[in-house]
Design brief:
disordered N terminus, alpha+beta, four-stranded antiparallel sheet, 4 strands, Alpha-Beta Plaits, Arc Repressor Mutant, subunit A
């Protein structure tokens, strides 16, 4: 969600543009302009400004993991032995090099990190956990949850009031 200082820097039209682009990143400037009642050049200028200011980080195609053969989605919780800078950097560097890790969040609570991980099957998950994650120095505990069903999944932030 946008912070109050951030929200003051963009107006209602910018918010509408961001909302539309989150729902369809391939929308044309002409169609977007029609939807928000603005000229295409004005929409283009606003989008460019939003990109340059960092409100828009990029554009992607969202691939379907199941169709690509990733039948398992998991959340892996990891606990570190120590919480010093060197240990944290070692773990972060290792996780950044693991393509199965879609997301990595440093969190509060019982565990230090929560990972969103994909695997093609049970054997691939076992190889990931045993051969890649367990050898990372400084991990004392790994807890894995398998996703049975995804109830909601979105990449859209709630922008409009």
């Amino acid at each position: 969600m946008l912070e109050s200082s951030t929200k003051d820097q963009i107006d209602g039209l910018d918010q509408k543009i961001l909302q539309e682009l989150q729902e369809n990143g391939r929308i044309t400037n002409a169609e977007l302009a029609r939807r928000i009642n603005l000229s295409p050049p004005a929409v283009h200028a606003r989008i460019r400004r939003l990109e340059e200011a960092g409100y828009i980080r990029g554009y992607v195609a969202l691939a379907d993991g199941e169709m690509l053969g990733y039948d398992m989605l998991c959340f892996v919780h990891i606990l570190l032995a120590a919480h010093n800078s060197e240990q944290i950097e070692t773990v972060r560097a290792a996780l950044l090099g693991m393509p199965q890790v879609l997301e990595c969040h440093h969190v509060t609570g019982e565990y230090d990190y929560i990972l969103k991980v994909v695997a093609r099957n049970r054997q691939a998950l076992e190889r990931f956990l045993v051969d890649q994650l367990t050898p990372v120095p400084g991990l004392t505990r790994i807890h894995t949850n398998l996703v049975l069903n995804t109830v909601k999944q979105t990449t859209c932030l709630p922008i409009l009031p």
